[in-house]
Design goal:
- There is one protein chain.
- By secondary structure, the chain is α/β, with parallel strands linked by helices.
- The chain has a single domain (35-139), classed as Immunoglobulin-like (Sandwich).
- The chain has one helix and eight strands.
- It has one helix at 2-22; strands at 35-40, 50-56, 64-67, 73-75, 88-96, 125-128, 133-134, 138-139.
- Strands 1, 4, 7 and 8 form a four-stranded mixed β-sheet that branches. Strands 3-2-5-6 form a four-stranded antiparallel β-sheet, with no helix packed on it.
- A hairpin with a 7-residue loop joins β2 (50-56) and β3.
- The longest helix is centred in the first third of the chain and has 21 residues, at 2-22.
- The radius of gyration is 23 Å and the shape is globular.
Length: 141
């Protein structure tokens, strides 16, 4: 009887201890660097409200995103708001947003050409470097 008891108690306990220990083995997230820019419509007006997503093309493959401000500016976040992006190459998409803000605020409706909505079709390509990245404005046609 003691052998059976040992088998049913010790083995699951060891498995739990191993699983708990793996949490300490996780690597810290990769370093990010600030990425700021602006999105403008064809008429020069800010692209607001919109989301901008940077799809990673290099390992470790961490995408980044941001929401545009009323002036069209953005600051990317990967693991937290405005924390930047991991260095590497990205395909960039821009998508208009419809925000439920109530009757007090009337937000403009923007139109973004279809090619900028898809990661596979977007012509926007960016390299994020290990430095403070201030990008040239994205001017949509």
């Amino acid at each position: 009887m003691p052998l059976r008891f040992t088998r049913y108690l010790v083995i699951p306990t060891m498995a739990l201890a191993m699983l708990a220990g793996c949490g300490a083995c996780q690597e810290p997230p990769p370093a990010t660097y600030p990425v700021r820019g602006k999105v403008l419509l064809s008429n020069g007006q800010p692209a607001y409200p919109a989301s901008i997503t940077f799809y990673a093309k290099d390992k470790p493959g961490n995408d980044a995103m941001a929401l545009t401000e009323p002036d069209g500016s953005f600051a990317l976040g990967t693991f937290a708001k405005d924390d930047g992006a991991v260095p590497g190459h990205y395909a960039v998409t821009i998508e208009p947003l419809t925000l439920a803000t109530g009757p007090a605020k009337k937000l403009p409706r923007i139109t973004v050409p279809k090619q900028y909505l898809s990661e596979s079709n977007t012509p926007l390509k960016v390299e994020v470097k290990e430095e403070d990245n201030v990008l040239q404005a994205f001017q949509l046609p």
